[in-house]
């Protein structure tokens, strides 16, 4: 017997047995434009897009063949991404150019984050998105762009100072991003509570660990876990499962293949999709609003 979920006011409702779900359809609770999900579906879809569900209550709803399960207690549900090959490459290039030009940085950053989040699928959170605006922290992005030129000042300690300031600015950006994540157009009550000192410390440790050639990958893995532990306002805990070894060998393959230029678009998507999939949601047993 199929179990169905539907989205209402940015929250996941369900599961409902098929018979009860049909009643919700007939009562108008589930409308043609309501996003619904059942096991076997690749993602959330409008009810009207599923043959036999709307206007065909006498027949069982058709269940698509591909997909993954909704969030279940005690299991980790990974995030997924459907980045297109040239879509990700093109936007990454524009993002880098926008940061180097400094003035367009806030607009380019928001444009980039909106596209990225719209292509990430979060279990139980349909239409994942981003609501930040360019003028929210415009000066942070412009300062970030300006700091890329620190090494050209001729001042010996300028790059080190720029690195510390960049770390602090990155901390501000991650807090801003977390506060502006949305589902079905509504902001999620999420916040990043990691301290500025802690974030800057991890940033500098990652920078220093590059001396070891390979140690940076393990620092990155632990840093991601620290970030996840400091995400609050979620009913489900955000976890990062990637290991240092996995990050290392994938980065090596990415770098090696990209040296041939032509494979860059495909390697960028391969790496990006894998990285997103290492973040997952796990039930923490609390009943809060959020993810």
Automatic annotation (TrEMBL):
<protein>
    <recommendedName>
        <fullName>GYF domain-containing protein</fullName>
    </recommendedName>
</protein>
<feature type="transmembrane region" description="Helical">
    <location>
        <begin position="199"/>
        <end position="226"/>
    </location>
</feature>
<keyword id="KW-0472">Membrane</keyword>
<keyword id="KW-1133">Transmembrane helix</keyword>
<keyword id="KW-0812">Transmembrane</keyword>
<dbReference type="InterPro" id="IPR025640">
    <property type="entry name" value="GYF_2"/>
</dbReference>
<feature type="transmembrane region" description="Helical">
    <location>
        <begin position="247"/>
        <end position="268"/>
    </location>
</feature>
<feature type="transmembrane region" description="Helical">
    <location>
        <begin position="159"/>
        <end position="179"/>
    </location>
</feature>
<feature type="domain" description="GYF">
    <location>
        <begin position="4"/>
        <end position="53"/>
    </location>
</feature>
<feature type="transmembrane region" description="Helical">
    <location>
        <begin position="93"/>
        <end position="116"/>
    </location>
</feature>
<dbReference type="Pfam" id="PF14237">
    <property type="entry name" value="GYF_2"/>
</dbReference>
<feature type="transmembrane region" description="Helical">
    <location>
        <begin position="136"/>
        <end position="152"/>
    </location>
</feature>
């Amino acid at each position: 017997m199929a179990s169905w979920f539907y989205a209402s006011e940015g929250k996941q409702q369900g599961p409902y047995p098929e018979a009860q779900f049909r009643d919700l359809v007939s009562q108008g609770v589930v409308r043609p434009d309501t996003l619904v999900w059942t096991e076997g579906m690749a993602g959330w879809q409008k009810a009207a897009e599923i043959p036999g569900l709307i206007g065909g209550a006498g027949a069982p709803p058709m269940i698509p063949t591909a997909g993954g399960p909704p969030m279940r207690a005690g299991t980790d549900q990974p995030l997924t991404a459907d980045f297109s090959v040239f879509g990700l490459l093109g936007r990454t290039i524009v993002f880098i150019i926008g940061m180097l030009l400094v003035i367009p940085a806030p607009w380019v950053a928001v444009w980039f984050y909106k596209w990225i989040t719209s292509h990430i699928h979060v279990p139980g959170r349909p239409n994942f998105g981003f609501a930040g605006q360019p003028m929210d922290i415009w000066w942070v992005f412009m300062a970030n762009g300006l700091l890329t030129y620190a090494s050209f000042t001729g001042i010996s300690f300028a790059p080190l100072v720029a690195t510390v300031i960049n770390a602090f600015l990155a901390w501000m950006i991650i807090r801003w991003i977390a506060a502006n994540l949305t589902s079905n157009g509504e902001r999620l009550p999420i916040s990043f509570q990691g301290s500025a000192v802690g974030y800057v410390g991890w940033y500098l440790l990652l920078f220093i660990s590059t001396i070891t050639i390979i140690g940076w990958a393990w620092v990155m893995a632990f840093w991601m876990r620290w970030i996840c532990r400091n995400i609050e306002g979620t009913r489900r805990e955000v976890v990062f499962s990637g290991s240092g070894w996995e990050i290392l060998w994938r980065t090596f393959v990415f770098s090696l293949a990209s040296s041939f230029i032509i494979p860059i678009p495909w390697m960028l998507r391969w790496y990006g999709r894998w990285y997103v999939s290492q973040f997952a949601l796990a039930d923490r047993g609390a009943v809060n609003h959020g993810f």
